[in-house]
Amino acid sequence: MSTEKRQKSEQAVSISVASRITGVEVHTLRYWEREFEDFLNPERTDGGQRRYRPEDIQTVFIIKRLLRDEMFSIAGARRHLAKSRELGSAA
Questions:
Q1: pLDDT digit string (tens) for 46-56?
Q2: In CATH, what number is assigned to the domain containing residue 75?
């Protein structure tokens, strides 16, 4: 494993820690992984446990803002994220 990949995997946290960091319930994170699979894909350990990297945590914050603060529908949030990705911005 490369040094860079090892450092990123060492920064990754479990879904319960990601939940505490973001203020989003664990079951909601799992649901968002399905609904936003093109944008939110935490790594998995060999045992199948989710490991949220810093970029996954940032994506959760963006999804949370879109859905809860800006009142986007899930489909609308997906479109917004896709458009932001095309434009190369952070949403």
A1: 999 999 999 99
A2: 1.10.1660.10
